[in-house]
Amino acid sequence: MKANKIICCEYNRAHITKALFQLKELPVILPNKPFSQEDGIDKEDIPPIVSTLKERYKNKKIILYQGAFQPERQLDHFFEAVDSLPDEYVFFLMGTDNEYKKALRKKYENKRNIFLPFLPSPLHLHVTQMAYIGVLTYIPLGKKLGQMLNVLYCAPNKIYKYAKFGIPMITNDLPALKFAFLENKAGIAVTDPLSVS
User: Fold this and answer.
1) What global pTM score does this model have?
2) 96 within 8 A of 124, measured Cβ to Cβ
3) Angle (nearest 5°) at CA 123 between 129 and 112
């Protein structure tokens, strides 16, 4: 099979792909597209749940997780961290329902850990813009090389969504995100293993 160009979404992935497949040249690096909503979010009707959240939590500092609910996200540590913070901090978790989300909800839901339903794009950005801190975590739990590399060198669109509203981000110690955050002064990478202290 031949390809005119090989494309990767992140610098490290491009080098790994070149080495793994013994390519003659480095794949083209085409980062995930920034999410531009100059014409979108302002034209959408604000969902009733957003209006309710804005009123109810207007005096709170919202730590926000938006994304998939999977064990590799290791969100338990963030519940513990929020519990150690002053009452002005609350933890919003937003994404599609599944068994893992249900298990987390059963274990942690309370007045400071608020589980939100999925809102389709671009409506979810109404919640994003409320955040004080954005959370991104990816722990390599897979046993296959491809799964582990996908986690270690992720390039999630979430970084653009949080950055769009000037929201600082926190992640675990991943090569791709750590250096992107350092280079752009957009957030911090917490050393693994994640812990409250």
Assistant:
1) 0.86
2) no
3) 55
Phi-psi region of 73 (alpha: psi -120 to 50; beta: other; left: phi over 0): alpha
- Taking Cα atoms as reference points, which of 164, 197, 193, 160 lies closest to residue 177? 160
pLDDT tens digits, 97-145: 999 999 999 999 999 999 999 998 888 999 999 999 999 988 888 778 8
> Per DSSP, what are the bridge partners of residue 170?
135, 188
Contact residues for 47 (Cβ-Cβ < 8 A; gap 6+): 119, 123, 126
Cα–Cα distance between 50 and 130 in angstroms, integer? 9
Confidence tier at 91 by pLDDT (50, 70, 90): very high
Q: Cα–Cα distance between 44 and 153 in angstroms, integer?
A: 34
